[in-house]
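Recap for those who missed Tuesday's class. We walked through two folding examples back to back. For each one, the amino acid string is listed first and its predicted structure tokens come directly after. Nothing is annotated here on purpose, so try labeling regions yourself before you check the end of the notes.
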Amino acid sequence: MEPNKKFKLVTSKKTRYLLPNILTLGGVCLGISSIKFSIDGNFNLAVTLILLAAILDALDGRVARLIKGTSEFGKELDSLTDFVSFGIAPVLILYFWELNNYGKLGWAIALIYSVCCVLRLARFNLTKNENDKEWKNNFFEGVPSPAGGLLILSPLIYELTDFNFNLNIKSFTPLLTVLTALLLVSKIPTPSFKKISISSNTTVFLLLTAGVIFIALLFYTFETLLVFVVIYLISIPISILIYKKEQKKYTSKISDEDHEDVL
């Protein structure tokens, strides 16, 4: 008599690939849903969904590496999700909020941003760091798409906050969108936060910081998000300086090795 065979959606060896991909698919659902809510005029919820999509995007890759669930399928799925959630959804939210007031120019700006985002993602998929240049893992080439999506939404985020600086930031929306699009396809080194080493002594402080950020996002969502956007913008010139320093150190090391080989 044959033993009963239990139904399995995937083999036991493949189950570790499910969780990262589920997180990725959750991100694309959030991105598409944000478009729907922006059409309805519910921009608060639309921006919140983009924020949640960005959080899931930050988690899926790290979870995949943690449980050794990385795969080529997951990599391609992640890129497609990024394009929908951060290349299409944010700029459509902006279009329904402000860019549609500029007519054909507003739609052209939306298209420019989306095209730059897909080019940035295509370049990222083809970029491979050499083994002797692991220090480059701490940097992205250009602004990553999740950060770009939040950057172009910053005028809307400001409008949703309780801040009152008597600034007409709304009028800067077209210019900011174009500048962010250029940053996406630029080769400016930006922080990736992938290889941050944390000592055991600072774990408690890290957890405390995470808790404070969570509470701030819970009660002051848009104010906290705007502060993060400002901090990220400040981090870009700092990242450029650190990159140049690391590059100079690497070049000096290679020169010394070549000199020793000649001797």
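Example two. Treat it independently of the first, because the proteins are unrelated.
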Amino acid sequence: MNYSKCRVCKEPAIIDLPRHNANFCGEHFIQLCRRQVEKAIKDHRMLDPKDRILVAVSGGKDSLAVWDLLIELGYQADGLYIGLGIGDYSPTSEGYAQRFADQRGLKLITVDLRQDFGYDIPTASRATGRVPCSACGLSKRHLFDSVAMENGYEVVVTGHNLDDEAAVLFGNTLRWDIDYLARQLPVLPATPGFPKKVKPLVRLTERETAAWCVVRGIDYLLDECPMALGNRHLAHKNTLNEVERQSPGAKALFYLNFVEKMAPLLASHGQEMVDGLGTCDSCGRPTTGTTCAFCRVVATSSAHEPVPVELVLSKKARAAYLSDRQET
């Protein structure tokens, strides 16, 4: 395809977007991204200008792009970085997040699992028998909520993009996991003990958020987390990428039509899950039992000897991780 000219101004284009059947220069690509995020925020009533917003920041393209977009759109937003203790990857990713904040005069709150709770993700994986991504996701979700509630933030923003949401939806649909399907929405309203959670990037693809960062001059971490190599989420992304290649726009139709047409049918099921929650005896956070899953992970993992990251990686991931360390 010849995408040398921007559809809007006919100046040289920097990106072709088959799902929009269009090419854009830098200026008009930025405008497109802003419009897509503004539409997501408006359509799903994600944010109010008066909201105190906390952005979950990893140092990667998506979280830095969404933080940058919100500031550009006039919202007041602070960042939250969670140090997961994943080998060299975690301090490197924290550096990207901190530099982004420092260069723009933004506030970044940091929480370190090892320092603050006595464990890290490799150790939690080995101590609890959970796969690393499960221990990581559980820890991050708990801390996003607790830090927001303790510091008076009404809304937690995450950088989940269209590719992320379509891949998760694909996996949940393959299993017909109703509990997860009922909660896979661009907005989860605030409930007792939980802040509102929103995903402003659900109308932008991974490639588009990366391009936003390039055009805006945002330096971000390129490396994938070594823990993620080989997980099902990436396999689902690759499958949907092939569908998208043959039918541009398919991912957007798949996810956005689910949100519009199917999610309302599951709303009552999601409410039943919230209504059944009690209070954790240890931390006071909402939970289905007497002790929440996070506190159980802390109790088990903090008593375990620290485990090096390479010991909990798959053979393929371990080889890649060790190779990267030797090169650096």
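Answers for example two:
The chain has a mean pLDDT of 92.
The first helix runs from residue 26 to 43.
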